[in-house]
Amino acid sequence: MSRLFHILAFCLAFPALAADLPRPLSDADFPPVDPAKARIGQLLFYDKILSGNRNIACGTCHDHELGGSDGLSLGIGEGGTGLGPKRIAESPHDRIRKRIPRNAQGLWNLGAKDVSVLFHDGRLEISDLYGNGFNSPAEEWLPEGLDSILAAQALFPLTARFEMAGDPEENEVSGAVNDRIDNAWPILAKRVRIIPEYGAMFVAAFDHIDNAEDVTIVEIGNALGAFIALEWRNHDSPFDRYLQGDNAALSPSAKRGMDLFFGDAGCATCHSGPLLSDQKFHALALPAFGPGKTRRFDPQPRDTGRMAESDMLEDAYRFRTPMLRNVALTAPYGHNGAYPTLEGIVQHHLDPLGSLDSWVPELARLPRAEWLSQVDFVVQADRREMARLRRAVDIRPLEHSDGDIADIVTFLENLTGENALNRPLGKPARVPSGLPID
Q: According to the model, what pLDDT value does residue 16 have?
């Protein structure tokens, strides 16, 4: 078969050339991180004190051993137990009410200076719109003083009912969120600062904190952001070495895959620049399932992607282009984890509607939950919604060979850093709250 590949329809006149490789990513692309703040963030990242019911931590869904993700298509938040693919949807005292609507993204290189938008739908952006540095779901109620987009991002899972907050009737945190999002953050900040070990660490690490009583959610967010930025910075893959001049760093298959990726395949039209992402939004017609990220007036499960944030019809079903370093460590793939393998997601890019038609629910990694089974795939019975999804596709299929797919996958595997699984801080042995670590 031909080596011709898909090219973004709106960029057909300007295909990427194989010679147009990005410049190397380096430490200069990242702001400096205070190690003392990162150390606090490491502990908080794995401390369940930040969840409404004190039963889940950031690290539950972004685990070190799973490349900063959870290995599931749609995660299990509040009410579940266990880690990663072994996480179950109920505990002896509770069970989940809803799956997390979207796949838990890996955290690699999100601390880079050029990162300006986060979440699959881009609902957090660097912006002066509300006078606090960000356009976010908290709007003008997001506190000032957050020193990075990662610091801001870290605050939102804490207030999400099905992620970390729990139900309003269960605890004061979720109850406060039910009134207004920013009402929960002082409660969580007090939980942290009254623990003597945390209080002393904040006083030592933050110049403007003289007493533990001064610690707010801003310092907590900045510590979490510092940890994520430091912990998941990685650019020592064979591809990075190749960009730095080591021509022997890539195998012949990986080089062929690289040439296709940056050439005829058109992958670099979206996965561009040193971060391998244009930080824009594109519609790929990925299979729909799960509860969806519904808007308040949606009558049933669906996920319209960027449109839910922008309210622009042309943004329907578009999702943010992910960065790709260490992508082989963060399966499954897609905004809802529809494909368990790199081969699957590459094939979908080459033939979106053909892959959509051949996709089967068994490909989704969903922990068993019989009480949710009728909801998991109900959106696929909505013929109008499926027709809208099929119409909103930014890439078109062209013929390809199995060998070309294999070469592209080999190249993607060569984006894995040599030290990707050897992080500078890792998972702590204990946390100051005394709560167990998953």
A: 40
Residues in a beta bridge with 126 = 134
Domains of the chain: residue spans and CATH? 7-27+235-413 (1.10.760.10), 30-231 (1.10.760.10)
Torsion of CA 141, 144, 146, 148, to 10 degrees: 90
pLDDT of 4 over the 70 cut: no
Write down the catalytic residue from 163, 219, 231, 413: 163
- Opening angle at CA 200, ends 199 and 203, nearest 5: 90
d(CA 384, CA 347): 25
Residue 163 annotated as catalytic: yes
What percentage of the chain exceeds 70 in pLDDT? 95
pTM exceeds 0.85, yes or no: yes
C-alpha span between 438 and 435 (Å, rounded): 10
For residue 314, the Cα-to-chain-centroid distance in whole angstroms is 23
pLDDT tens for 362-381 read: 999 999 999 998 899 999 99
pLDDT for residue 213 is more than 70: yes
CA atoms of 298 and 308, how far apart (whole Å): 10
Hey, what are 69's tokens?
A: 């993700």
Query: In this structure, is the dihedral angle defined by the CA atoms of residues 336, 339, 341 and 342, taken in order, positive or negative?
Result: negative
Question: Averaged over 388-409, what is the pLDDT?
Answer: 92
Q: Could you tell me if 326 and 417 are in contact, meaning their C-beta atoms sit under 8 angstroms apart?
A: yes
> What Cα–Cα distance (Å) separates residue 389 from each residue in 222, 377, 394?
38, 15, 11
Contact between 87 and 94 under an 8 Å Cβ cutoff? The reply is no
Scored b (16 or more CB within 10 A) or e, 312-338 reads eeebbbbbbbbbbbbbbbbbbbbbbbb
User: 170: left (phi > 0), else alpha (psi -120 to 50), else beta?
Assistant: alpha
Q: pLDDT by residue (tens digit) across 279-298?
A: 999 999 999 999 999 888 88
Q: Distance of CA 420 to CAs 9, 37, 231, Å?
A: 35, 22, 10
Stretch 51-73: mean pLDDT, rounded?
95
pLDDT at 19 over 80: no
